[in-house]
Structures are given as structure tokens and as C-alpha cells.
């Protein structure tokens, strides 16, 4: 029996419009579903893009300007929730692990249909043409995370986490970033022991990249970042060199390039991972790649700028340039297991630098926009 009768959720009604708190009636979960009290909601840069209206995955009916109409939706796609009720037929998570009331689960907000070409032939669940990412606010239930209560649908894959032994902040710290990086490794192949790895940007995605490079045995992990707090966190995660792109010594592309070549030697960078979301970083990264190098593009989720690419250099260096989009359900399961295995060695929980209650989502997004945080979280149950 739950104490909830009503609950609130943060709703986007239009680009850059004030975020509204809507009230909903609590409904017991239908068969095959579960209802959770959201205890942590990670604030991702994509949430900021969705609120600003500059991301194609929003429910926009027009793209003319910031006055366009959208279908109101509930924000949030990174979350941990405490099970309030199990719908008929639910006794395990989507890995077969038994679940019960009060267990903590980590869920995938994308709901693939498992019945289209992308899902069944390409095995590209994030490319599902029938999938749903945002949660419409006019529904009677939500599967988003900026809400006090969520009802996970049959195709919202969820996984129990070891909340008894691992801090909740350790799981939410790299929210969707660690699953996204794991999907990227599926697409491009593993990080090889002894590789020189360049990570551009040390937000949550960049920290996930550093973590995976470290446990893979990379010989050098070089990072470029302007935020001092993120640089310190990159070092704690195992970066061997962190270049301050805002400092006098490494403020130019040329200066950074010289230092990186001093570190990696004649072979050049063997793997670069773009995590900053800035097109200019791609131009810089391309110039640093050695022969047979791989370049994984992860961070550029929204935007329209293009960059110059030399087909001649790409062919003669035999470069592999790979884009990757978000994560599949199995990547959430893998991410949870990795955090449980390594939370004592890596400062996952310390990444959470800012916390806000549900009524201060606008302030949380502004903190992300200002670049003032490593990781921002919403705590929907907080006053």
C-alpha cells in the first residue's frame, strides 16, 4: 500500500517557457507494469536542449521559432526509483532478477517496440521508429524521471540495483552517460589495452569514457576540458593528462596539439572520443588522429554546424569515424553492474555536485547551462 494519493511532475509546455508543476492522481500499475517513487533524477545536457527546443526528439509540431507549439511533456530520462507497486505478472526485473516492494531500480526511458525493422533486423533499439523518448504530460501516467511517481510500462526495461551496498549517487552520477558510452563501444569496438585515448570534454559522458579507458588498460588518457571541477574529477577517474583549454598555456588548438603529440609520440592518438557537444572539437580531434585511428562521436546531440573533413586524409590514414546514439536496454544493465563492481575504486558518487528539489528544475537546468557542475540531480521526494 502506498502513501501517495496525488503527486507532482515537472512539465515543459514550450521552448524556454517557465517549467510547470502539474498534479496527478496516483494510479495502481496495470498488468505487466510497475509504479515507482523516483528518488534520483539525473539532469542531462539533453534535458537542457529539450527545454530550449533545439532538439529534434522533442514533441515539436513546428520548427519555425521559439513560439512554436509543442505537446506538453514531462522532463527527465535518467532515474532511480523505489518500487511502490508491482502490476499483475511482474515478479522480476528485465534480467530475470526477482524484485519486490521497496527495491531500487534503474530504467531505460526509451520504449522500443521490438516489432520494427530497426528493432528486429538491425538490433538498433534507439533507432526504433515507434519508440517513445519523452513522456506526454497529458497521459495519466509517466515514465519520465522529473516526477515524484512514475509508472514503467511493459517496454520500459528496468533493472534492480544493489542499493543496500552502493550509494544511490554512484548509480545516477553517470546517468545515461555510462550506458551511452557502452553503446558506443558496441558500435566502434572495445578500447584496447595500450591505446592512447583522447577524451574531449569531461562532463558525465567524458568521465564515463575515462572510466572505461582506465579499466581497459589504456596507456595514456588525455583530456581537454575548461571547467576546473571537471578537470579535477577527470584526474580522479584516471586521466593521465588534463589540458585546461581556458588557461593561457593550452588555450589554442596548436598548443594543445603540440602537447598531445609530445605525450603520444609518433603513432599519434589511436582513439579519440568527442564528448563535449561542440563541433569545433571534432575539427580538433580529426587533426590529432594517427593512422588506423578510431574517432567516436558521442557528445553532439543537438546543433546544425558542419565541419571540414578531408577525404584524402581519411583514406590515407585509414581512419574509422563512428557516430553513436544513446543506449539500448542491455547497456543500462551493464552500467549498473560496472558501478557495483568499481564504486570503491572510482569516485562516482562524488560527481554529484548540485541537488535540487522538483520545484527548482529551472534552477537545475540553469546550473547545467552555466557549466557550473559536474553532475546535477533532482530529488523529487525532497521538499
From TrEMBL:
What are the protein's UniProt keywords? Oxidoreductase
Bilayer-crossing residues are none
Q: Which Pfam families does the entry link to?
A: ADH_N (PF08240), ADH_zinc_N (PF00107)
Q: Which stretches make up the Enoyl reductase (ER) domain?
A: 14-378
Superkingdom is: Eukaryota
Q: Which PANTHER family match?
A: ENOYL REDUCTASE (ER) DOMAIN-CONTAINING PROTEIN, L-THREONINE 3-DEHYDROGENASE
The protein here is known as Enoyl reductase (ER) domain-containing protein
Q: Which organism is it from?
A: Aspergillus keveii
